[in-house]
Amino acid sequence: MTLDVAWAQRWARESAAAITAARDELVELDRQIGDGDHGENLKRGFQAVVAKLDSIDVAPELVSDVLKTVATTLMSSVGGASGPLYGTAFLRAAKVSGLATLDAHAVVALLEGALEGITARGKAAPGEKTMVDAWGPAVDAAVAAADAGATPVEVLEAAARAASAGATQTTGLVATKGRASYLGERSIGHEDPGAASSALILQAAVTAARGADSDASTTTGGVA
């Protein structure tokens, strides 16, 4: 399973599919502690990403080319805080992904870039019930996996698992950033919608990688 330009394009499409499927859940999570538009905004944004990818005449050569397209499209089409946050995340990730193929440490750099973008834009820290509480554990898990000799896809898998666990753990946190912070202690018991969508997007990266493996098996007649 190679993490290349085709993978990056599949990641964007898988993200769109995952966000669309979870649209109502994300809306409900955001309704509980925010203004209820997170799911719809992200759905619209990633649908715009897919449309943009479909309209590109010249095939991208580098992973960063795809990530830049994702970043700029999200920034221009997603309202609220999530557009700038995710846009900056993908833009920072693109700056360290100017490669045709990513190895394990390049995957780590991509995730670290995304986290840096989110923290720089949102001024958030771990434990404040934000997207950082999904992306932070994801980066930590990715670093550990890469240092242990994991493959690029295994690094992604470790990151996705950690992001999912981190998102779930935001349920017990008090929100101290963003709109949810106005609820104070009342925000306890509700999962952060941004962390939830972050976990979905990172799992979509894994699904995109596994999809490449499935495509290869189909091409070779499904011989294991």
Automatic annotation (TrEMBL):
Task: Tell me which GO cellular component terms the UniProt record holds.
Answer: cytosol
- UniProt keyword list: Kinase, Transferase
What are the GO BP annotations of this UniProt entry?
A: glycerol catabolic process
Which InterPro entries does the record match to this protein? DhaK_L_YcgS, DhaL_dom, DhaL_dom_sf, Dihydroxyacetone_Kinase
Gene3D superfamilies (alphabetical) = 1.25.40.340
Q: Where is the DhaL domain?
A: 6-207
Report the domain of life of the source organism. Answer: Bacteria
GO MF term list: glycerone kinase activity
What name does the UniProt record give this protein? Dihydroxyacetone kinase subunit DhaL
State the species of origin.
Sanguibacter biliveldensis
